[in-house]
Design brief:
This protein has 184 residues and is mostly helical. Helix content is 84%, strand content 0%. It is found in: Cell membrane.
């Protein structure tokens, strides 16, 4: 039971870290005029994408784990390090990207781009042997809630907050990458 609680806590923290990316983007998107119904829909779509991307990554990671053994854990840790560094660098640069409208194909493109990092983390978790259902449900839940929060707060706060939350998410992923590379 203690192992289950530890895994639940670890996966919740990781899901929160990945959801911070969606929160950051939601803050920026929340600056435009969106109806409440659109905000709900956007959060649901991003939550679903944050469930399927890590699932595909985990299945791939489980295959790699069987073939590569211990080396696979180091690959997963390295992926988390790279992903965390990418998130931190992106938050420091504060680049303004052209906005894609969050409807139809634009929403699918937006949800895909925000959830691609979940595939990489899912790959790492599949290598590590995490529980699939717990992982995808937590990732979907946290990303959906944080997207909603970002969209709603985006109407009231300035865009600089988004860069700090991206850096926080990147730092958390860095820490988990280090944990996989250097287990105690």
């Amino acid at each position: 039971m203690n192992e289950l609680a530890g895994e639940l806590l670890t996966l919740s923290i990781m899901a929160f870290a990945l959801g911070m990316d969606a929160f950051s983007v939601g803050l920026g998107m929340g600056m435009i005029q969106l109806k409440f119904r659109q905000i709900i829909y956007i959060g649901l779509v991003i939550g679903i994408f944050h469930m399927f991307m890590p699932l595909f990554g985990m299945l791939t990671g489980q295959l790699l784990s069987g073939w590569l053994g211990l080396l696979a854990s180091y690959i997963g840790g390295a992926l988390l390090l790279v992903l965390g560094l990418q998130m931190i660098v992106a938050s420091i640069r504060k680049e303004d990207k052209p906005f894609i409208a969050p409807v139809g194909g634009g929403l699918v493109l937006f949800a895909t781009s925000v959830s691609l990092d979940s595939f990489s983390v899912g790959l790492s978790l599949g290598i590590y042997g995490s529980r699939v259902w717990m992982t995808i449900l937590l990732f979907g839940f946290f990303s959906m809630i944080l997207t909603w929060l970002g969209l709603l707060l985006g109407k009231q706060v300035r865009s600089w907050v988004g860069s700090y939350s991206g850096a926080l998410g990147g730092t958390i992923l860095l820490a988990f990458g280090i944990k996989l590379l250097f287990p105690l």
